[in-house]
Design brief:
Elements (H helix, E strand, L loop, with lengths): L2 E2 L12 E6 L3 H14 L9 H4 L15 H4 L8 E7 L5 H8 L4 H12 L4 E2 L21 H18 L4 E6 L16 H9 L7 H11 L4 E3 L9 H9 L3 E4 L6 H14 L3 E11 L2 H6 L2 H19 L5 H4 L3 E8 L8 E9 L5 E9 L2 H21 L2 E4 L22 H16 L14
Parallel strand pairs: 2-3, 2-5, 3-4, 5-6, 6-7, 7-12, 8-9
Antiparallel strand pairs: 1-12, 8-10, 10-11
Helix pairs in contact: 1-4, 1-5, 1-14, 4-5, 6-8, 7-9, 10-12
């Protein structure tokens, strides 16, 4: 769970903040290009709560809704530097052009800055992502050796870029489905298994280990286990490092966490929810493999069950049928399209239907999530908070929660938790919507 070293005393965001991104593909390059564009005054940071989000402070009668960055000290964008790893040698400009998410005219205006950001060799094993085959990879005798190589990269990046602090956000591909096992139960077991090259330790877990070992806050943007294991929670508490995961909440699942709480709030029954997607980017190619899709499927399927809680209202949700499909369709590129068919029941069990067709841009929705997770994790670190940052569940499809607790998926409950955490950090009164004076 989220812990604090002492009473909250927030350090000021001095110097440079380095944001390290394993996987410099569509999501990462869209994030980096977006920050450069905003800093140059070429565009606006739409979708980012840390930049343009507002929240209420104090009583409703005061009508005080400042920017979030005016309530808590968010690190300024102008003092952010980016780095990362990739299995391809392209610099960020070349990778962004290849991804075809952003208009090339915009990218050309950012070329001097983007071209300077070149990837470090990645830790990669095609066993975990079968549809990719990059050659710009590290070599090491053991997985522990590879983790140490990542740590050396982190040290070098921090020194060369004169960073005061670092954060890391996994933007790499979805790995094959791996269930939590004995090697994940303690830090000692994990480190032993890393030295023995155990198959249940994928590359994303090595990045998580390296970051947390060095006290670098870490967020996982894919459905991989990554930091969502007891061993790395143990390490995060030992090094007093904030962690968050997993899987960026972008398109179809974002819609589910908006719609499903509304249906439940009105006590409407749901008989079935069929979801299908088409996308054609690198993520789509990876998910075209059944073993990788399984990881994503488990992440997406968990959402509705946790929101509807069928065991508490079996008459409404016990027999709900939930199906998720993802289809690789190259012509669509990064422009994902999702369809949802929802069969619901109202008064006297009369049937109704809801149809949702969401034509979204996956990386455009993910980029502000990457930025916010990085900046909020840095805030948590400066506030003495460590361990699982459950208040960042707002951004995640399969939120990491303390052992024995169900994650919260309802986006409105998640937002309330996020805002109250920020009020707590700022020393402001929490808002519970109780009290006759309407101020609490």
């Amino acid at each position: 769970m989220t812990k604090t070293a002492s009473n909250i005393k927030v350090e000021k965001p001095k110097g440079k903040l380095g944001i390290l991104l394993p996987g410099l593909g569509a999501v990462a390059t869209t994030t980096i290009a977006g920050v450069v564009a905003v800093n140059k005054g070429l565009s606006e940071p739409v979708g980012s709560l840390t930049q343009i989000g507002r929240m209420r402070v104090g009583k409703r009668t005061q009508k005080n809704n400042p920017l979030i960055k005016e309530v808590v000290p968010i690190h300024p964008l102008k003092d952010v530097v980016f780095g990362g790893w990739d299995i391809y040698e392209d610099n960020v400009y070349q990778s962004a052009v290849h991804a075809e998410v952003l208009d090339k005219k915009l990218l050309d205006q950012l070329k001097p800055q983007l071209s300077k950001i070149k990837p470090m060799r990645a830790v990669f094993d095609p066993m975990y992502v079968k549809r990719l085959d990059g050659k710009f990879v590290k070599k090491g005798k053991t997985k522990m050796d590879l983790a140490k190589a990542i740590m050396k990269d982190i040290e070098t990046f921090k020194k060369e870029n004169k960073c005061d602090r670092l954060v890391m956000v996994w933007c790499g591909s979805t790995e094959i489905y791996i269930q939590e096992s004995e090697v994940h139960q303690s830090l000692a077991a994990l480190e032993k298994a890393m030295k023995e090259n155990h198959k249940d330790i994928p590359p994303s877990m090595l990045y998580a280990y390296a970051a947390i070992k060095m006290g670098v806050p870490y967020a996982n943007g894919a459905p991989n286990l990554s930091c969502d294991i007891p061993a790395l929670v143990e390490l995060a508490e030992k090094t007093q490092t904030p962690i968050a995961g997993k899987d960026f909440k972008t398109g179809q699942t974002l819609m589910k966490t908006v719609i499903a709480p509304g249906l439940k709030a009105r006590a409407l029954g749901v008989d079935g929810w069929f979801s299908t997607n088409i996308l054609g980017n690198r993520d789509g190619a990876v998910l075209d493999d059944p073993d990788n899709f399984k990881t994503k499927e488990v992440s997406k399927l968990s959402v509705l069950e946790e929101i509807f809680e069928p065991e508490s209202q079996p008459e409404l949700y016990k027999d709900m049928y939930h199906k998720v499909r993802i289809n690789y369709y190259p012509p669509r590129g990064d422009n994902k399209e999702s369809w949802d068919n929802i069969d619901i029941r109202g008064w006297l069990n009369y049937p109704m239907q809801i149809k949702v067709n969401f034509l979204c841009r996956d990386s455009i929705l993910a980029a502000p999530i990457v930025l916010d997770l990085a900046l909020f994790l840095d805030l948590a670190k400066r506030s003495g908070m460590y361990g699982i940052q459950e208040w960042l569940s707002f951004y995640l499809k399969s939120p990491q929660a303390p052992k024995g607790l169900h994650p919260i998926h309802d986006i409105f409950k998640q937002l309330n938790k996020l805002e109250n955490t920020l009020r707590h950090i700022a020393g402001e009164e929490l808002i519970t919507n109780l009290g006759l004076d309407y101020g609490k």
